[in-house]
Give the backbone structure.
Amino acid sequence: MSTFGYRREISKYEDIDEDELLASLSPEELRELEQEFDDIEPDQKVPVGMRQKSLTEKSSTGNFSREALMAYWEKETRKLMERERLGAGEKCKTRRSIHNQ
């Protein structure tokens, strides 16, 4: 596209009323727009380490029960230990049968 064509494309946006456009945005859309502006041109007064937006915002996934978590891990540990004990016994039997042949 030539420079002339590019300017023609831009000229159709010159008559847009920005105030009217901003007034029509929802609060969520305004927050998203603010985040976009922060990404484009961060505040130079803010330290670099604090400029990045938070990527950890999420809703709660439910109640945390320490007792339930501990019971789950104890149960899984017992299963793993049993599997290892049985697996070790199977390996020993297999080795014995190979060596006895």
The radius of gyration is 32 Å. The CA atoms of residues 39 and 52 lie 8 Å apart.
